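Homework help board

Subject: predicted structure for assignment chain

Our instructor gave us this sequence and asked us to write out the predicted structure in token form, then describe one feature. I got the tokens but I'm not sure how to describe them. Can anyone check?
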Amino acid sequence: MIIQHFTDNDLYKFSVMHAIQKLYPWSYVKYAFTNRGKTAFPDGFAARMREEVNAMASLQLTRQEKKFVEKRCYFFDPVFIDFLEGYRYDPSEVTIEQNGGELSVVVEGYWYRTVLWEVPLMAIISELYFQMTGAAPQDVEEKAITKAIALKELKADYSEFGTRRRFSFDVQDKVVEALKAGSGEYFKGTSNVYLAMKHDTIPIGTMPHEWFMYHGAVFGYRSANIKGLEAWVDVYDGSLGIALTDTYTTDSFFDSFSLKQAKLFDGVRHDSGDPLVFADKAIRFYEQNRIEPVSKTLVFSDSLNLETVKQIKDHVAGRIHDTYGIGTFFSNDVGAKPLNMVIKLTDVKANKKDVKYLKAVKLSDVSGKHTGDPQEIDLSLKTLGF
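My token output:
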């Protein structure tokens, strides 16, 4: 069984689940798998994946996990934590099909329930693929220690964000242990809640793209960032205060980022486009709003490695607090080619009773990397003036 622990998932899935449960409990959605790398999956993959998904029905929050969440995730109310204790995965929400080497995965159901599937499904797809193709990890601890020491020498604050595209749970587990040992105070934690508990570190994460994608589909693209951020504040009162900027492009985000929100949120996260341009844009935004940039945080999380971290850090040069969320470079740098894949929100209903789904799309700061229905992408671009 690949997913053996209920909290073997990223914190941001639980944080957005909490917000959905509070504000949008009737919302009904679809997610779909996109095989960006055009990987050919081996014969029988869908059947093996179905076995893994079915096995997840037995997962439940243990007493140890509950105590950890209560202690470390202070921003969750006790009602939500009790809800997690009673939550069970429903495999009927997941449809898996295979046609030759092509894999199709669709998730459908109430948003507050189905939101937890994305990360473990991707972890299953990745680990199962490497199992079935006979790949073996190489130099796991050695590479992780080398990277940890290098990041410490750069004096770069960073976290491990590698659950979704990891080679395996075992590899990610060993990597987190090595990073903590090798970087000391510069290692800030991991996105994986279970591994944060196991290695006595901080679970890291705030909000996903799907939060803004939902608001864009239901409330309109001009309102998506404003509505999404205000709703987040309604739930968290200032906790989990790193705002994701690029769901409908960074330019659109900063155009709608109000002074109130800029002062309330601790900082912003970069996830696509040129990180150096983003850094200058964010610093300039804070300066124009008479906010000291050094009082805010920029989180960089787009395909990072040691070279890009050094490049960004040299460019930022202490003008603002910079920190780094590093994923595949940590959890799947073991001699095999990582899968290039995503699972994204595709369709939403504000209420299950609604007749039609609304299309959910994500724009990107990189031209040609928009995701979702092409006609809806065109509509969002025109609406936002691009």
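Reply (TA_rk): Your tokens look well-formed. For the description, you could write something like this. The two ends are 46 Å apart (CA to CA). That's the kind of observation they're looking for.
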